[in-house]
Structures are given as C-alpha cells and as structure tokens.
Design a protein that fits this description.
The two termini are about 25 Å apart. This protein has seven helices and no strands. α6 packs antiparallel against α7. The chain has one domain. It is mainly α. It is elongated. About 85% of the residues lie in helices and about 0% in strands. The model has no long low-confidence stretch (mean pLDDT about 85).
C-alpha cells in the first residue's frame, strides 16, 4: 500500500479516534475524582490517610493538596465535574465520528482541537511539563493530518 493511500485510509482516522476515546476516559475519571472531592467524608478519610503517613514527601504533597482543596466549594467542584463530563462528551462524539469515517467529525475535530491549542500553549508557558508538550505535539500532528486529509481526499472517497 502506498503511503498516500495509507494516510487516506480509515485506519489513521481510527487511530485518532482511539486517542480521543482515551482522552474521554481520562476526563471522565477526572470528573468523578472532582465529585468525590466534593464529599466531606472522602476529604476526611483522605485527611486521616495523610496523617497516618510518615513525615515525608508523600505526606507533604497530600497536605498541600488538601489545603488547596479546602478553599474550593462543593458547588465549584460540581461545576468543574460537569465541565469535565461535557468535555469528555466532545471527545467521545469526535471519536465516534472519526471511527466511522465521517467528514463532519474531521471538521469538528479540527475546530475543537485548534480552539484548545492557545490554552495548551498558555499552560505550557505558565508551567512547562513534558506531558503538556507531548499533548500539544500530538494535537498539532492530528490537526496537520486532518487538514491535509480534508484537502486531499475527494468527497467521493468519504463517508458522509
């Protein structure tokens, strides 16, 4: 199979879809984590667990996390969880559409992914991390591929 034919195939779209599904799962897990942090019993149990740790880096990090969470209201945590679930829904819709080779999903993914690049760049500038750089790089590759595909693959070769 020629490289160009491979790149035009449904296989690459399905790889991108799998990446979107993975991101959706991670964001759903984050949403459930935020909901559990809104539960005072969970925070109390986490505090007891932290107190049971020997003095060290783990205890220090958990104490800092608990003090940070102490300033966040349950309503705000619920709002952040809802936003996480909505964001995961976007990833899921993109993933399903791409998996099925739908042209609208290519457009949705280009629009959604490109709209988050400035936020990711801001986060990278604010607090540089290798994982943030990796996510930006993967998203730019996805954008480049989808834009290339949308310009090169004739409409007759697509599923609509």
């Amino acid at each position: 199979m020629k490289v160009a034919a491979f790149l035009k195939s449904l296989f690459v779209l399905r790889l991108i879809a799998a990446f979107k599904f993975l991101k959706a799962l991670l964001v759903v897990a984050t949403g459930f984590g935020l909901l559990s942090l809104a539960n005072p019993a969970f925070i109390s149990a986490l505090q007891q667990f932290t107190d049971s740790l020997s003095d060290g880096l783990e205890q220090h990090l958990l104490r800092n996390l608990l003090s940070l969470l102490g300033g966040v209201s349950a309503g705000r945590l619920h709002l952040m969880a809802v936003a996480s679930f909505l964001y995961a829904g976007l990833f899921f819709v993109e993933g399903v559409g791409l998996w099925r080779g739908r042209h609208w999903a290519e457009w949705l993914t280009v629009i959604a992914t490109s709209s988050f690049i400035p936020i990711e760049l801001y986060e990278m500038a604010r607090a540089p991390h290798l994982k943030t750089l990796l996510v930006i790089f993967i998203n730019l590759l996805i954008l480049a591929y989808l834009i290339w595909r949308m310009r090169r693959v004739p409409d007759s070769a697509r599923n609509h």
